[in-house]
Structure formats: C-alpha cells, structure tokens
Design goal:
The protein is mostly helical. It has six helices and no strands. It starts with a helix and ends in an 8-residue tail after the last helix.
Length: 121
C-alpha cells in the first residue's frame, strides 16, 4: 500500500492511510492482544508480543502524519557505512590511522548526501 501512495500529496496519502492502513493495524493490534492472553509469560513469543504492544504508539505514529515513512530504511542506509566500518577500524593500526579513516569516511558520506560522486569529490 505504501508503495502505491508514495507519490501522492500529503492530504491524499493521509486519507489513504486512514482508509486502508488503520483497519489493518487495528486488526493486528487486536490479534496481538488475543494471542498474548494465550501465551505463557517469559517465553520468546510473549516477549515479542509485549515488545510490539509496548511500542504500539510509536509503531503506528506514521498513520497520523503523512510526512512520516512507514519504515526507516533511508536512515539505516545512511548509517550502514559506520556500522560496517566499526569492525574494519578496530584494527586500523594506530590512533592516527583510525582518525584518517574517520575523516575519509566522513568526506565520502558527505559527498553522497549532497548528491556528489565521492570519487570525483
């Protein structure tokens, strides 16, 4: 559904979410509550359901604000180089080498975020 409404203006996107996504999320919420009553405390399933129910407001926040995406994929893509780099920089050799790697990575990511080719930049 989100793929279908991605290019709509804010008002239309909000209307579509209210019409199409709210009933789905309500059904999911009701199902989680019903399943939680059937699951033994302390199990992995109970913890997973409790996690979802405990964050329900945050999970459904996008339904009330058409500017918010349903996921955080864009943000995850932006921080991936640092997460990957952490392992690589662990053995950079010296403090100076680690600092150089951090500077170079910062320049590359800044170029990407501003729409530049990092190699040309």
């Amino acid at each position: 559904m989100e793929r279908d409404i991605r290019d709509l203006d804010s008002a239309a996107r909000l209307q579509q979410r209210l019409e199409r996504a709210v009933p789905i999320t309500k059904t999911l919420h009701d199902w989680l509550i019903a399943q939680r009553a059937r699951v033994t405390d302390g199990t992995a399933t109970a913890k997973a359901i409790d996690y979802s129910l405990g964050r329900w407001t945050a999970l459904t926040r996008y339904l009330a604000d058409p500017r918010l995406p349903i996921d955080n994929n864009h943000d995850e893509q932006q921080i991936r180089p640092w997460a990957t780099g952490r392992k690589n920089w662990l053995f950079a050799g010296t403090l100076a080498a680690g600092q150089r790697a951090a500077v170079i990575t910062t320049l590359i990511q800044t170029a990407k975020l501003n729409g530049h080719d990092p190699y040309a930049y």
